[in-house]
């Protein structure tokens, strides 16, 4: 059974199309990235454990489900992953937040680590790793390596757009993790940018360039 889940919800599709549009400015881009983060978190947390508690409605008492208190973490890949964090936290407000800093070398496209700060007890946490773009897959593979070194067992990588090459690389390097993808695009270009993609996600979220 595949551990990769491609979103098929029309709301996600519509919002990704708006993100691609070069006329979408920073404010709307940021809002859309957060909203897609919420919708994808809803999918990624679909199997959270529940337990039954006694609840008394105005009509009758009954046993009903509540979340069983699973520890959660959200660990975005800096910078662009940060854009999805608030949207994810809207679905699971008690999750702890860590950060992994990676940047791609402009020539080799290989990732370089510059920061890692994680919550305690990562071995007990279901960990969502958001990054809007999965291009060559190098950053995602390294981020998951770093999390596994800290003992993480239940890792759920979440991206808005993936290139087929990067998705394959991540699936092969880490067949045990779950991968949530908004849309799989056509290919990478000679600069390892996703085609058609949306350009540089970090620059569009933060208004840099
Ligand atoms: C982008 C993106 C991913 C990475 C994907 O970040 O947010 O982290 O590239 O590329 P890959 O799959 O080929 O590794 P970038 O390195 O541009 O850093 P930024 O978020 O700070 O702009
Ligand atoms: N990083 C981005 O932000 N966009 C791409 O297309 C590839 C990597």
What does this structure look like?
The chain has 209 residues and is of the alpha/beta class. It has one domain (4-206): Rossmann fold (3-Layer(aba) Sandwich). It has 6 helices and 14 strands. Strand 10, helix 4 (138-149) and strand 11 form a beta-alpha-beta unit. Helix 1 (10-20) runs antiparallel to helix 2. The chain is globular, with a radius of gyration of 18 Å. The model has no long low-confidence stretch (mean pLDDT 97). Bound molecules: 1-O-pyrophosphono-5-O-phosphono-alpha-D-ribofuranose and uracil (URA).
Structural class: alpha/beta
Low-confidence runs: none
> Rg, please?
18 Å
Number of separate domains: 1
Enumerate how many helices there are, as a single number. Answer: 6
Q: Which class in CATH terms?
A: Alpha Beta
CATH architect. name: 3-Layer(aba) Sandwich
Gross geometry = globular
CATH topology: Rossmann fold
Quick synopsis:
The chain is of the alpha/beta class and 209 residues long. Helix content is 33%, strand content 31%.
């Amino acid at each position: 059974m595949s551990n990769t889940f491609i979103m098929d919800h029309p709301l996600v599709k519509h919002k990704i199309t708006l993100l691609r549009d070069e006329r979408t400015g920073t404010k709307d881009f940021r809002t859309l990235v957060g909203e897609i983060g919420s919708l994808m978190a809803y999918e990624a947390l679909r199997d959270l454990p529940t337990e039954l508690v006694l609840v008394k409605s105005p009509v009758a008492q009954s046993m009903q489900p509540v979340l069983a208190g699973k520890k959660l973490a959200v660990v975005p890949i800096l910078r662009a992953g940060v854009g999805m964090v608030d949207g994810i936290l809207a679905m699971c407000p008690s999750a702890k937040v860590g950060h992994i800093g990676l940047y791609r070398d402009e020539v080799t496209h290989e990732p370089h680590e510059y920061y890692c700060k994680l919550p305690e007890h990562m071995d007990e946490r279901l960990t969502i790793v958001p990054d809007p773009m999965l291009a060559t897959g190098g950053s995602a593979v390294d981020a998951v390596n770093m999390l596994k070194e800290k003992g993480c067992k239940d890792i759920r990588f979440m991206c808005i757009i993936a290139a087929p090459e990067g998705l394959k690389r991540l699936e092969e390097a880490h067949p045990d993790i779950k991968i949530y993808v908004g849309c799989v695009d056509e290919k990478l270009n000679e600069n390892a940018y996703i085609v058609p993609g949306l350009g540089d996600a970090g620059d569009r979220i933060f208004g840099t360039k």
